[in-house]
Specification:
Length: 301
Amino acid sequence: MDTEGKISENLGMEDEFREFKESTTELEKGLASLTAMLNKNGRGTVYFGVNDKGEIIGQDVGRNTLKSISQAINNMVDPPIIAKVEVNSSNDGKKYISVSAKGTDRPYACRGSIFIRSGEEDRKVPMSELRKMFMSSGDNLIQTTSSNQELSFRELCDLLNENGLHAKDDENLHKSLELLNSEGKYNQQGQLLSDQNPAVLAVVIFRGKDRTFMSMRKEFSGHSLLLEVRDVIGYVESLNETFVDIRPEGRIEQKLFSMTAFREAWINACVHNYWVNMIPPAVHIFDDRMEIISYGGKRTG
């Protein structure tokens, strides 16, 4: 049989553990898929040089190809992962690249966006699932008993209902969102998501380029942490001034900073904060920059 021009090897079908990309021109999408698989199953592999049918079509591999992939992983994926990047060869000599990783420090983000694997697709994590992933890597948060056992979750239920989910403050909610520890008592995660949440979030504005002079401090407290996180976003958006630049080609309006970038960075900071110590993240605004402070994670500037 004449096999010229035919594909000699097939890797099978995409699933919740494997993603195929035709080349590294789709590197960012591939890394988004990798984080989605880590968020779902704690492991995953992306293949470059393989089409969506699983056929190995080949990938050019230059001197700096693997280095570029490793650098992209370091720059795009948060929290950091250790990925195994390998060059493989098919039976007929075509080269293709595999990028594999394992991790339990979820949720993982690619360029600030959090995805989860569903079959062979990646979908952006809605608020309801982000709540389930909230510090799921930190067993201490779930096992540590809340100092307050008189908790209610009206605001959390309202927020879930706003997102199209029918939620009631009952045993099913407490179990599904891991608001109880192994002894059946409310844990610290439950305390943070409750109406009695003690955490205080703050936006601090400094005059100048350092922390010498504080001009204003706005605090957000007395609500479920998820509402406080949302309120901080709304407040920062109110500070985002619009500048008008009159040019020969016309009037150009530009915002002081990207709200999309801030929103993603702020949510990531809150998700990855080390809440066991109950020290909340904060937003610091200077004349020349904005910093998001997260304790136990990375500082985002």
